[in-house]
Task: structure prediction
Amino acid sequence: MDFSSQAMMLTAQAIEELLERAEGRDLDFKEGPYRFKKGAEDEKGELLKDILAFANTSRMHDAHILIGVREVRGGKSVAVGVSEHLDDASIHQFVNSKTNRPVDFTYEVIPYNGVELGILSIAKHQSRPLWASDGYGKVKARCVYLRHGSSTAEASPDEIADMARADMPPVTQRQPMLTISLHDPTTDENAKAQFFERRRLVIPDPASIPDFAGLGEQPTDLASAISHVTRNREYYRQGAAFLAQDALLVPLDCCVQNIGDATANGVRVILTLLCDPGEVELINRPALLNAPQARTNIVVVSHVTSAMRIDRVSKGWIVHRDMPKIYAKQGLFFRDELFIRATRTVDLSIQATVWADELAFPAVEPLAIHIEVAHVQVPVNELIEALNRKATEQPSAPISAR
Result:
């Protein structure tokens, strides 16, 4: 095998995509530089151990250590830069003088957003297993290191035996294959496009909406008098705001499927909505108004959803959603978590990008949602009648304007 610079150099766009990902079998972030030039044996040994671990880990693509990056768990990591860099020739001489056979890797300095990053790229094709012939710092002699998720571990005998499979042509290896679709929970069907009809309720000015004073009955005993006092006087006004919100909400429910023949680990979904963020809003459930209650002594507990990040940008919205591993021939949903609120009829173009640790490139799917919005005037008397009907129901009964 020719070990002359087979590791691929990174572009600025590739770095941007890597910053969106979490650390794993093929990616690591270091905020500060490796201490090599004047480093002690333990410090140089850390560099050697990291390179060996990535080199021994069988992958479908190159691994990268980004130096000068502050890791942000659950979000996009931040490029802070470094001013001290490794010398490519020196670290090659150092590493390959310690190992049982040459390791294919490169070190490069890349300017990115006004700072300099150091990038160690370890080629996917190596003659494995690799180890240090003699002990050095914290690196044990003839110990095979590899990556387990985002950490470094000592390989078991079975894992060492399996390393020979890394030299098989990629087409013969089992791998995941991810796809993402819009999901309709009413029909339990997936599609690349959806159509919704919604109403934009023109609600009376809050100043014209009266206080809620109950349904006309007068208190006749102490218990009913207490109930009368605890009535929510803001019920009509709160109900108006809730109905206006609910009438426009469109669920953005998705299904991520693994149609391949291997487990997908470290799955991350990125949804990019191209729209006018002033007319189309993206909201997660905790930010929604709760249905109001006619009595103030009723406690409503908000629905708790998984971690999700929503960013508003000049051309729309970007959603980041991490998911656990997805086994072969299985799918995972995220639904009842994310909603679109459009104030006019719109055609939404959505680019869905799905990453996994084992994928050399992300899966990219174009999705589309059409929302037809009709304007409806709601007089005060009709609003009050609808909310009075709700007040006579059980406290848990939902209010809906659809």
